[in-house]
Amino acid sequence: MNEVTKKIREVALKLLQKKKVDLVIGFEKGTLPLRATPCFVRREEEADRLVWNSFCENNLAKYIIRRPERVAIMAKGCDVRAAVELIKENQISREQLVIIGIPCQGMVDRRLVKAELQEREILEVVEKDNELILKGGDFKETLDRNTFLYHSCKTCTHRNPVIYDVLVGDVVEESNVDPYEDVKQFEDQLPEERWEYFSKEFTRCIRCYACRNACPLCYCQECFVDSSSPPWIGKTTNESDTAIFHLMRAFHLAGRCVECGACERACPVGVDIRKLHRKLARDVKERFGYESGVSLEQVTPLATFKPDDPEEFILNP
Amino acid sequence: MKTTTIKKKDIAGFLDNILTEYKVFAPVTRDERVVFEEIGAGSEAILDYQNTPMPPKGILFPQTERLFSYRSTKEIPDIVVPSFEEKQQLIFGIRPCDARSFTILDTVFDGDVKDPYYVNRRANTVMISIGCTKPQATCFCTSVGGGPFSEEGSDLLMIDCGDEYVVKVASDKGTRLLEKRGFEDAGKDKLAFVEEVIKKAEASMGPEVETDGLKEKLDKSFNDPIWMQVTDKCLGCGLCTYFCPTCHCFDIVDETVGSAGERIRIWDSCMFPLFALQASGLNPRPTVKERFRQRIMHKFSYMMDDYGKIGCVGCGRCVTECPVNLDIRQVLDKISRSEDIK
């Protein structure tokens, strides 16, 4: 068992014993290799289920939205950013939330690993330092975990929790990668090329809404796609309806998306959902100086108005 | 039972021959994913794959299907029903679990009430399945009445025996398909070898999911708090239902522009909030708990009541694809073993 797992269990146990929280949300071992799975611990004796490894890929802040009870979450850098936005948007109060912050080394992209092994079925994974030791019926392969991280983890600039109540594990070095390098390249393309790219991406979408439901900032009590009167959007996989779903979602998340990548991890057909969201995140950062989820104090751009706003998008479209 | 053999190197030619008469769907690689698609040449079909992430369900029951189009220029609108495709089609390389899934869809769409769209397509479809010599760890077909070499739903079943496939004829459609081509009988020795292959594959299956007594247990569980526990982490998306080869719930929508439009059938999902919402505004399944329970109950209890069979073929897609690794096998196991449900 790794040190972080051990510590997390201790912290969780203590929180439950001292009745500081009613529930601890974390991860436990998944039923499949390369998977951890969200875990809800309410009883002291269950604290031992919690684990921390390279497969804790879900954003657990999804589960704290409008919770009535006092809750603790195991939170990576991105889970904390989502929690910060949710607190600011009054979806949970800071007082009822205990953040068990965990500096994150990035999560392993299970699909990338599987693709590397092609049709060979992985039956067991052991982690050793930075190595992933994969075992199958008739093979054993060792991969460097850092080569197989999610793209959202490779471009992450907030691996350490920005706020926390308890910090478990050592602070990690923040990467100085330019998170928007690919977005900038994309911006340089012709509008037709960009449209073609998105059109092709959206054709794969099957409208299962896994992206929306995995997103910690998508919490409308009634999503516009679920409205039947009026039906704002067609329900088929017609190209324009699918595009509207993704475009509207992107706009709705402008200045709110914390770039955790939960949407893409959930997407079963590999739609490049994040490109749109990151383009908007970059615009919001450049134009309004706002980066989502990094400060409890800074007012969100959609919740404020400045009389001297140049409003160039209206005057100079 | 009739059997024959076909060399692996002859498969492409075999399919080319079929292509002269049939529209052929086969597993192909698109954007690094294996999917069932219509092929133009036999060589496009890949033989060496585990299973397609997306089931071939959509070939007979498309996600979006136009039922008819209309134009209302007078009191009674003009309605145009699409003509049914006459051409025979063949699904090649389907896994036995997926071939079996169509027998479950048959009970729904081809039962007392016939769905002409499905029934027509189904009647024109021949299925050639490839048995699973290497079942995956997520497969549980044997727990729900199937098996890695189940012939149910297949017209021909191919069994990988190295350089060649031994082909078992599983239906009259299969017989007719082979008669035209004229293949030789497989012979006793090969069949004995096949028995070994089958035994070995079946022995390699993971632990069984207990389904004996499951229905009775489920029927008593409706109001049990266990549903809260097992659905804690469910995100409430529709991924599991869309990836399920037997999920068949649909919605019907009208898409109208001006005075003309189309009536379209689309896949629906019991996991969606809109699914059970009533016109009064009441939603009898207001949260993920009720929706997930419905999904499990439908497959493992209500389908038993209605059709006498489990509505799951154990393909394991919902297990593999679930964004939060909510494993149906674990859920069923928890319910089966629960001592509180009485």
Word description of this protein:
The complex is a heterodimer of chains A (317) and B (342). Chain A is α/β, with parallel strands linked by helices and 317 residues long. Chain A folds into 2 domains: 3-109 and 149-302, no CATH class; 110-148, no CATH class. Chain A is 32% helix and 13% strand. Chain A has 11 helices and 8 strands. In chain A, the strands form 2 sheets. Chain A has a 5-stranded mixed β-sheet with strand order 2-1-3-4-8. In chain A, strands 5-6-7 form a 3-stranded antiparallel β-sheet, with no helix packed on it. In chain A, strand 3 (71-75), helix 2 and strand 4 form a beta-alpha-beta unit. The longest helix of chain A has 15 residues, at 3-17. Chain B is an alpha/beta fold and 342 residues long. Chain B has 2 domains: 3-203, no CATH class; 214-337, no CATH class. Helix content of chain B is 32%, strand content 20%. Chain B has helices spanning 11-19, 96-109, 116-123, 172-181, 188-203, 214-221, 226-231, 239-242, 288-307, 317-321, 328-337, and strands spanning 3-7, 23-30, 33-38, 64-71, 78-80, 89-94, 125-130, 156-161, 164-169, 250-257, 260-267. In chain B, the strands form 2 sheets. Chain B has a 7-stranded mixed β-sheet, with helices on both faces. Chain B has a 4-stranded antiparallel β-sheet with strand order 5-4-11-10, with no helix packed on it. In chain B, a hairpin with a 2-residue loop joins strand 8 and strand 9 (164-169). In chain B, helix 6 (214-221) packs across helix 9. The radius of gyration of chain B is 22 Å and the shape is globular. The mean pLDDT of chain B is 94. The chains are: A alpha/beta (317), B alpha/beta (342). Chain A binds chain B through residues 30-32, 35-40, 58, 62-63, 115, 119, 121, 123, 137, 204, 206-210, 212-214, 222, 226, 228, 231, 234-238, 265-266, 268-270, and chain B through 31-33, 48-50, 53-54, 63-64, 134, 136-138, 229, 232-233, 235-239, 241-243, 251, 253, 255, 264, 266, 269, 272-274, 277, 319-321, 323-327, 329-330.
